[in-house]
Amino acid sequence: MLAIIGPTASGKSEIISDLISKNYSAVNFDSCQMYSGLETLKSTPTDLNEHYLYSYLNHENSSNVFEWGNKAKETIEKIIERKRNPILVGGTGLYLKSFINGIDNLPENTEIKNQVNEMPFLEMKKQLEKVDPIILKVYKDERRLKKALSYFLFNNQSILAGYQKHRYTFFEDKVTVLALIPKREVLLERIRKRLIRDFDEMVEEVKKFKLNAEAIIGFSEIRLLLCGNITKNQCIEKIEIRTRQYAKRQVTFIKNCLKVDCTYENGDQLKNFMVEYDLEKKQFI
User: Fold this and answer.
1) 44-80 residue pLDDT tens
2) pLDDT band, very low/low/confident/very high, at 165 (cuts 50, 70, 90)
3) Cβ atoms within 10 A of the Cβ of 244, count?
4) To which H or E segment does residue 5 belong?
5) What is the dihedral of CA 163, 167, 171, 174, to 10 degrees?
6) N- or C-end of the chain: fewer Cβ atoms within 10 A?
7) For residue 106, what pLDDT is reported?
8) In order of start, what are the domains of the chain with their CATH numbers?
């Protein structure tokens, strides 16, 4: 199966729109695109034909990678049953990485977990020195050490062994990852053009939206504008800066944390993979 990942405004939606006509069906792994409403602010594709796991959550509800992964697995199986080719698309690298590599599914006891969380740091380290001293050489931060002690007290074994034993896998087959990462100056220009083009519509969306959606870039900034706390130009500048920062984090994750098979600078280059990729053998020719 194929996956296309890229930062915001890289042009993923345009690629998918073209692939839909070539018997592909898109399965979203962008965490913001999973929530309904604010479609312009999120840059949701206007035509969701053969697009799945877009706008299916209410902002009052929460989700996580485990829930999404199971939904994605079910969706992919249904797409394949219909003789179409599923393709993962999005910008949340952690979701894609978890889908490919699986996630930790460690058993835990809430009572023990709460007791450990209330322990002073030095007392917690003393306990680990007695029961699992090796973990102190692996982890240094308090959160991970607390998790390690909680796991040991409940399961009577090191969390390192637990990670090997309790691994939840979503997808067994190979996923070929294609990254769409435009040159920096091109990406920044795309971000600005999209913001200027859609800004007035974004403002109208936020004005009508009744729930809190601060995780969506631009929502809190436009709220400040509507309250008269900042000007239009200041609002656009704040959104642009925040979007740039987010895009930079996305690119960093893609380059450092994902095994990418091919990277493209523009959509035209990426479209050529239709010729280069053998769907049956799941490899490049």
Assistant:
1) 998 999 999 999 999 888 888 999 999 999 999 999 9
2) confident
3) 18
4) strand 2-5
5) 30
6) C
7) 84
8) 2-103+170-284 (3.40.50.300), 106-165 (1.10.20.140)
